[in-house]
Amino acid sequence: MTLKEVDSTNTFLKNILSNSKPVPEGTVIMAEDQFAGRGQRENVWHAEPGKNLTFSILLKPAFIDAQSQFDVTRAASLGVYDALMPLLGHKLKIKWPNDIYYGSKKLGGMLIENILQGSQIKHSVVGIGLNINQEHFPDNAGNATSVKQILHKDYDLKNILSEICGHIEAYYLHLKAGRSAFVRNTYISRLYLLNEEQNYRSNGQVFKGFIKHVTDEGMLIIDKGGEEAAFNFKEIEFLNQ
Ligand code: BTN
After folding, report:
1. Which of 25, 103, 122, 219 could pair with 215 in a Cys bridge, judged by C-beta atoms 3.0 to 4.6 Å apart?
2. 46 CB-side CA count, 13 A
């Protein structure tokens, strides 16, 4: 379903889930203009109307238990990666946990909201924002880029959306068939700054380190001067980005 204008496709999808009618798995809500898009860390997500992809997919991964919920993040990130890879090539990376990067610039991000029931995931609202045909970004957009800035061409949003959905489905089906090791290893191999020295900050301390791994639960493992340390999303900041 495409909406002309909505606050946030994630919020919209969560609202229709709490109404009486069941919403089928695989439902995609796309917005031409999302005027109150939500990002990670309580940030807002800005995108010029009509030029970018802002959408949410409903998954019902009851076969994934809560402690493995990072598998949903992996499937979604890899699906976006595979869809964009034929256009953008090997400079495309996944920045842990789920940003899409080209070189050192951010092409897009995700807000995945899982609704748990006991130890299972009842609903997963996978919200994805990708900069496609936007040419200019405000100064406060940091290191944002778009497919148009990279390739100097306009792309059909619906085509890219359907590629992304097809590839996410493929990874989701791997998970469903018990092939989570394949999905986890592929995710690691696509990581931004894997085994490259980089500055990080955690708890006010700045240090150099190398990304080595991501645990099954989704924690980032960094080699810090010969010792490995594990970080949750809110515990670590990538510097010089
Ligand atoms: C981030 O990098 O901070 C995550 C951005 C996620 C934005 C998408 S756009 C579609 C969906 N609806 C939202 O309100 N947010 C996500």
Report:
1. 219
2. 10
Spatial contact of 52 and 131, defined as CB atoms under 8 Å apart: yes
For a substitution probing ligand 1, which of 128, 145, 161 has the most ligand atoms within 8 Å of its CB?
A: 128
Assess contact for 58 and 13: CB atoms under 8 A. yes
Q: 188 by DSSP, 3-state: which?
A: helix
Asked if the bond preceding 86 is cis, omega within 30° of 0, the reply is no
Question: pLDDT tens digits, residue range 125-152?
Answer: 999 999 999 999 998 888 999 999 999 9
Dist. CA 30–CA 128, nearest whole Å: 10
Residue 241 pLDDT > 70, yes or no? Answer: no
Nearest to 128 by CA among 181, 86, 84: 84
d(CA 224, ligand 1 centre) in Å: 31
104 lines ligand 1 (CB under 6 A): no
Amino acid 135 reads E
Beta strands in 131-166 (DSSP E): none
The minimum-distance atom of ligand 1 relative to the CA of 53 is 9
Mutate to test the pocket of ligand 1, among 2, 30, 38 (most ligand atoms within 8 A of CB): 38
pLDDT digits (tens, 9 = 90+) for 29-82: 999 999 999 999 889 999 999 999 999 999 999 999 999 999 999 999 999 999
Left (φ > 0), alpha (ψ -120 to 50) or beta: where does 128 sit?
beta
